[in-house]
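#struct-help
A.M.: can someone run this one for me? Single chain, 457 residues.
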Amino acid sequence: MTTHKTVRIAAGQGFWGDWLEAPVRQVQGGDIDYLVLDYLAEVTMSILQKQRSRDPAFGYARDFVTLMERILPDVAAKGIRVVSNAGGVNPRACAEAVRAAADRAGLGDQIRIALVSGDDLLPRLDELVAEGESFANMDTERPLSDVRDRVQSANAYLGMQPVVEALAAGANVIITGRVTDTGLTLGPLVHEFGWSFDDWDRIAAGTIAGHILECGAQSSGGNLLRDWRQVKRLEDVGFPIVEAEADGSFTVTKHPGTGGVVNVASVTEQLVYEMGNPHEYITPDGIADFTSIRLDQVGKHRVRVHGITGGPRTPMLKVSVAYQYGWKAVGTLVYSWPEAYDKAKAADRILRKRLKALDLEYEQILTEYVGVDATHGKLAGEPDPEIAEVMLRVGVRAPERAPVDRFTREIAPLVLTGPPSVTGFAGGRPQVEEIVAYWPALVARERIEPFVRVEML
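D.P.: on it. Structure tokens below:
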């Protein structure tokens, strides 16, 4: 364990596609002990699985490798340890790519990479079902057999335990598959402070620290609802940093001189993100009670978080299953003043009648009038009759591809066979896209833990 009284953990990415400069600024902008990068959402796993099915060398966040090439010299020189779930559904390929980047940079002997696997249940799915795991949908209670032939990925949410093991083995770059967002931060804290895996209050505290970091700048001024006009220099926003103490308390801050804001409001808004039951925020590592959290502004861009309590982990692990659901396409037309809204509504009526005349079957046809009611529906009141422009956005969904493909051919003719004043056929002919649906399920913990592997590359 380190002798540091304080462990500094910096957020580097809040999702796959987040600001690429953030991790570089975190490692170069001041002292940190760890950089954690979260890439995975439920839909991300299915996208990565589709990529891997096309090419077995893919299936991970490839921009992570490019990023690591930029920061590896700082990671080596400053002794920073990197923890990321960028491995997606192919953590080995990701780890091997980072190993090759380190070797190219002449840092091969300074970069010790650990690979965490064991979350991918797709090869074992039928075996686990045969052994009694039902994988029933947590929302509908439908059996997995309803969609088994269309399943594209199935990943258990692992916790911090393999991350702790990898750090104990001496890794300074840890690449995982579906380790939880919070586990990326909790693992380093358990390792550094020697917390017991059943010290539930400290486990809860580390979990909440990870929750605050997991969405990147969302806790340091980005996407801030309260007083958003007062948030300065978002073009230069500083991503959050947690300064953690052995007792489980911690302070949220950011590097000096960066934009954004860290205050009670910004931290609170991130805390309530995807919270669910505030008394039982369930993770693979334990349960955190969000009603116990205390926040104090203790300085400029410094919020102390303390008082956190928690409870034991559950006997089950959550499983994210993605399956092929059907096909969709979305098309847009922009209508301009005068009578823009009326023109858009007329165009929608015409389109729907033409599709009905073709006797096509759709599961859903959804129309939005962007600029009028697409976001809040009728909550915004009646639209201004003199509104300058309206974007008509129509989406269709069907189990089969053919009706969706025909829809993509029917929207363009409205430019010359419908109401006047189309100012833009945005994006050209709509693209048909495969729908990947989410199937949440549970699996007994003991079925997964023995299969977690930590390997040093």
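A.M.: thanks! Residues 261 and 369 are 34 Å apart (CA to CA).
D.P.: also worth noting: The first strand starts at residue 7 and ends at 13.
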